[in-house]
Fold each of these.
Amino acid sequence: MLGNGRGAVKRPTIAEIAARAGVSIGAVSYALNGRPGVSAETRRLILDIADEIGWRPSVAARSLSGSRAHSVGLIIARPADTLGVEPFFMRFIAGLERELSGRRTGLLLQVVEDHRAAIEAMRLCWAERRVDGMVVTDLWTQDARIPVLEELKIPAVLVGRPRPGTGLPAVWTDDAAAVVSAVDYLVALGHRRIARVAGLPALEHTRVRVAAFREAVLGHGLGEPRVVQTDYTWEEGMRATRALLSRRDRPTAIMFDNDVMATAALNVAQEMGVSVPDELSIVAGDDSQLCVMVRPALTALAWDIQAYGVHTARVLLEEIDGRSPGSRQVGTAGLVVRSSTTAPPV
Amino acid sequence: MLGNGRGAVKRPTIAEIAARAGVSIGAVSYALNGRPGVSAETRRLILDIADEIGWRPSVAARSLSGSRAHSVGLIIARPADTLGVEPFFMRFIAGLERELSGRRTGLLLQVVEDHRAAIEAMRLCWAERRVDGMVVTDLWTQDARIPVLEELKIPAVLVGRPRPGTGLPAVWTDDAAAVVSAVDYLVALGHRRIARVAGLPALEHTRVRVAAFREAVLGHGLGEPRVVQTDYTWEEGMRATRALLSRRDRPTAIMFDNDVMATAALNVAQEMGVSVPDELSIVAGDDSQLCVMVRPALTALAWDIQAYGVHTARVLLEEIDGRSPGSRQVGTAGLVVRSSTTAPPV
DNA sequence: CTGAAAGCGCTTACAG
DNA sequence: CTGAAAGCGCTTACAG
């Protein structure tokens, strides 16, 4: 009795190829894997037969003998609600795939609520040998997943800054440089009161961006930097903007850590009768279609997310192959200037 | 030599459990799988040991002997660009997972450009026995993937209306009823000139929705229904809206097939000096956070996408088990009234 | 109720 | 250059 209840089709195996070619299955395996040990003629014959009968290796069999799962895992730890509007993951996944599919490696996706669940999923996935390695996103400054990855010796790539203590390679973008470029741009326009609405404080890149912001503001001699922490949501974007705009010395420019909050700010400004960009300039931290969908269209930092995915997959595959890839930096975000930024009111 | 280059940890196997318990590996397998053939006492002992050493079955070994991959596939066939803003897939995937993870079934995700690539990916995935079945989304009226699924006898579930010719089960929502409810609502407000900006004509649900729209409009005696076909994008949403609003007898209400185009319409209306909702009511076809992020907030049809995912996974797993689940309908969308709809101008 | 054995479809030393 | 065989970690009839 085979597989599914609908009377599964019998797959061709190397035994069948061996029988047709009149050689041993060992010879077939060598030929198909491009290894020495078979004559060019025999190899040709075997490849032709395999091609003709549409043979493909069974991953299960390859995994069992080769101790490779030929898949990698991506466990996204976020409440399901906040995933919808985030264009990041679909683009990132498309990038991962572009690299993985060429290497005949599958992508196993899991979506969980928090780090505790993510760790459990990691352990299970690894214990069952479903994957050869994992992609770790949304890194926290203190990240409970990392010690687990190290304890289990799971090959993994960190999507974020390298961690000196660990042996895990990282693929990262220069968040600090991007933030500085945005501050410089606003200062060049003449802004002196620039605030920042930051994302989740637990996330490492939030911390990096905030630090870069503070340094840039201080470097320009603009006084004590003003930063509001949020959880990236629409609601907190509204609240933070309201708070900033209610002060007497309200900022003339605000940088937001994503596009959703920047859009929220647009609405708050309108409600409060603050004109954008004339009285308030807005910069969104992540460029997305959303930024061109609202009015005024938002000036934003644009990252090449798909390339990020491609490099991440590449580093992970090298890591799995035991080639100790080392960390890699990918392109810094570029500032896309649209209609939400201009010189401050005089 | 084992797995990864970093000196893989030796996984525990049933042989180890058997040795510790002093029984055969067969007995261990029976005990772990809850089958008869071992005494309650032995079973207890075996389970305890397995638990203690953290044993988990190797999927590769289980697949090879049991002829089940313990994974299902989702191949998304869309240009990567259009994926970002779509909140559908992340929600849908979260729903799939909720059901799959409880059944110890993995989700293999692929993102490809078109149906040709999707078919190739399906064939490969199946030939390698990476999956036990597949989820098919974004069904076309004439869908080249279906004959391939049938030819290969791949267990699959259609995310869309049942197809009489095929033996494939479907999980669907009543798109027609949802569209009719929206038309009824607009008519009740007093609208007589209602237009529809539809999505990709090749998609089956576009056709179903357009047909329902036409019927509803004719049923209300509102004259020849006006429908503009688009590809779901922002750009075509703008173009379609511009065309509709440029006519002398322009509509007083427009229904859009998604949220992105409805947002585009908001901008076009503003540019053309048409006030929303006073001069133009707008209904978005898919509810999402975007609908509450714009001003005025958009009245929209809200689908329980996560539940859709849960049911889809459930049906697919039944299909894989050979239980011929039959098609299943899930809840119809509800109209969420916000600020973009009101009575037409007198 | 239990043990010994074959088999799933590959890979890979090891002899010839 | 090639063949015969063991092994990956399970499941599952088949004897006892």
Amino acid sequence: MIEQFFNWYHQEGRSLPWREQPEPYPVFLSEVILQQTRVEQGLAYFHRFMDTFPTVQDLANASEEEVLKLWQGLGYYSRARNLHKAAKHLMEIHQGIFPSNFNELIKIPGVGPYTARAILAFAFSKPEVAADGNIWRVTSRFFGLNNEFPSKKTMELTQELWKDWVVQQPSVFNNAMMDLGSGICTPKQPKCEQCPLQSQCFSFPSGAWVNLPFKEKKTKVKPLTLVYLISKSDGKVLMKKRAENTIWANMYDFPEMIFPSHWNSEMDILEEISKNSRVSTVHSVAKQSFHLLSHRKIQPFFCFVDFVPILQLEREEKWIPLEQIHELPVPKIIESLIATF
DNA sequence: AATTCGGGGGA
DNA sequence: TCCCCAGAATT
């Protein structure tokens, strides 16, 4: 059974750049990029980062802004900030060499239980199951489990259930499980007729896989209206670096006003802006299509305005020359707008 | 234990 | 629309 599974992987598995020569740094980089991100989406970013920052030291010597700029468009930007912190951490604590034990790996910023085990399995050939969403789906269906995921207990159980498999070839096992989960044992309409594990699968005979893995919570999506106040003056635009502990932290956008979602017409926005003492004139109000995040449904408005002559700049606000805007890391929501400047 | 972090692609 | 993707950090 195990042999059959590994053979399937060698024939049907994906060929991915970080699988060729599994050194710690590319493995680590790929794992961070692929957190909650599909391989197809992350692939180009992996190449960009390897080209721009070939070593941990190169990454550590970069500025956070450079890292964020390279990460632009991929989302979950705390990963980029932590990636940068991780490189500095590795240089300071480990002389740029990745540790090969769980307790030290998990101290690296942005490295959690999953990523730590992935590094151990892929880069150090340790018999660890890197239980991501794919592997847990396969596991829950194969053994007929409906535990909560992710949880410490479920992680430990997963280790135990696959220990005779993973010990054979840790790297091959994890890669094979991930490819099985993403290509065969998919959330909907799995291709069971092609599955190398079919004959031993708990869920296949009864079709029990339809309800596995069990999932309880779906995140609530809060609607809101986001009004950007855009002012071009003297070849410059007033922009701001977003604060920590906000969405798109440390990235750049414009002064903003946030409203409950029921203010959603140009008239409403015009009325609200008129109450803003910083704004002297409103040139245009343009309603945009929804911007969807996992936990927000944003109704954006792009409003071109003039600010009052003696404008008191708030912290992190700065007049940016038009030709320098493209150097700044910006969230997706204003990417196309910036491109027209 | 629950929330908060983006953005995209498939059905 | 809804789901969920090689999850981690914070509350």
Amino acid sequence: MSEESLSQIELEMAVLSRRIASVARNKREENLVRAAYLLLFQISTHGPAGVKGLAEELQLDISTVSRQAASLDQKGYIKKVPLPQDKRSYLYEITEEGRREMTEYQQIRREKVDELLSDWTEEERAQFGVLLKKFNDSVKVYWSKG
Amino acid sequence: MSEESLSQIELEMAVLSRRIASVARNKREENLVRAAYLLLFQISTHGPAGVKGLAEELQLDISTVSRQAASLDQKGYIKKVPLPQDKRSYLYEITEEGRREMTEYQQIRREKVDELLSDWTEEERAQFGVLLKKFNDSVKVYWSKG
DNA sequence: CTATATGATTGTATCATACAACTATTGAGT
DNA sequence: ACTCAATAGTTGTATGATACAATCATATAG
């Protein structure tokens, strides 16, 4: 019944959390810092944005986004575009190099997922992708409420 | 095709990782430290074990398990059982209080998952649970190889 | 008996995060 | 126009979960 699925999801989420924590401290980083990947992705898909807007969209603290952005900026993957009407803020826009780097990083990640799921059927992959997205969407809503 | 599922999983895993990191730093802790939950679970389902064995099973560094176990021990959720034939090591076994605490924590987590997935069908939950477990299993194998 | 291996602990570093304090700029009310 | 509150962003500090390296105590092999 329902209870069983709940238990399973609850447990497997704990397992996955643990694994993710472990991966995060373990992996030698390439150029693109893992955490900043989604920031770069956000800018690349939704266009230039300021720190505040990015933080809201990603549901992260402004200070966190500020640091991630500074790091991407320093690597030349994004650059500040000043706003004439407000000298406090700017928009970050992705650079050519940033787009290249993101694509490359994505490709590496995809290959890893592919390898990881090498014994999965296409149907399983498709289902998992859809449900995982649905899960994240649910979490996002839950988060924004309380 | 396959590419699309891969991309989706790759992206949504990044999103989930980020969220998990955020939850980890955000949440006020109850009695049971989040990370130690799986350690307690392992002992509760597989019986008494030493630090080394637990670390292997959980694929964590021995030092990490040692600290988590010390924390659970200090809270009275597990206790050391000396081995007469080897004074270096002991087995940790779960206490009554530990079992109670674990069950309670589990229950709270399940309720949260239930709330989170309130608009999911039973079929979706079941599928997600199964696929999530399969994913974790795949990761575990991948990890143990390289 | 000594040297090496083993189980566990402890010291230290790291990463991504949040919260709090701060800086610079803007805008509103008088 | 001046002051004071609001706002965008940065920087300081703390935290949790981890890994790796050094160490300690005990056990075992030669």
